[in-house]
Specification:
Layout: E1 3-7, H1 25-36, E2 43-47, H2 66-79, E3 84-92, E4 106-111, H3 112-120, H4 129-132, H5 134-143, E5 148-153, H6 158-164, E6 169-177, H7 185-203
Parallel strand pairs: 1-2, 1-3, 3-6, 4-5
Antiparallel strand pairs: 4-6
Helix pairs in contact: 1-7, 5-7
């Protein structure tokens, strides 16, 4: 099963005085990609080629760009041959985040309309979190249960919404903390490595 990793806010200006990107998204995405390619033959990485303050690639208004055209082509092509998994990678700054999230090492975001089903253990819904809840268990195991959470997301998240639009595509959005005093490089590396192993076992089984 193909795995696609996206990081739509990963383009950073080295001289920027203010935060203009997800500063740790590229690092996390590359770690996951490198770990997955050890054991999976079909992994694609989409880093951003556009700065977020110029155009947000995770919003509907960016869907006519070349980046999105290539992403849709890959999703459609691979989904025509079977299931596809998309991991949309982001990072958040602890200093500018709401108090309930800033202490977390990572969180998973699922769509508002699916959040109730997740909380109540409901049946399968658009984004198949019920099929992929092991990702939360891995995060809790590596980072500590108190340091990981599942939060509501809205339909403005264009990449997550794109996965909903395809019958054969599952997807999640993962946020990791940018503060290395909260989430160390060692912890991030171990998290991505363990996540890759579980993704590989689930989506890239050895024939």
């Amino acid at each position: 099963m193909p795995v696609i990793i996206t990081a739509p806010h990963s383009a950073c200006r080295k001289t920027a005085l203010r935060r203009d990107c997800d500063r740790r998204a590229a690092q996390a995405a590359r770690l996951l990609y490198d770990a997955l390619t050890r054991v999976c033959d079909d992994v694609t990485l989409f880093l951003s080629d556009t700065h977020r303050d110029t155009l947000d690639l995770n919003r509907a208004e960016s869907r006519d760009t070349e980046w999105w055209r290539r992403l849709r082509e890959v999703i459609v092509e691979k989904a025509s041959n079977g299931p596809v998994f998309v991991c949309d990678m982001h990072s958040f700054p602890s200093a500018d985040t709401t108090s309930e999230l800033r202490h977390l090492k990572a969180y998973f975001l699922i769509l508002e309309r699916d959040f109730h089903s997740f909380r109540t253990g409901g049946t399968k819904y658009a984004v198949s979190w019920s099929d992929w809840s092991f990702g939360l268990r891995v995060a809790q195991d590596v980072l500590g249960a108190e340091n990981v959470r599942v939060v509501r997301g809205s339909d403005v998240n264009a990449i997550l919404m794109e996965t909903v639009g395809h019958r054969n595509v599952d997807g999640i959005l993962l946020e990791v903390n940018e503060d290395v005093t909260i989430l160390s490089d060692k912890e991030l590396g171990e998290f991505m490595y363990r996540l890759a192993d579980l993704l590989a076992a689930t989506y890239c089984p050895v024939s």
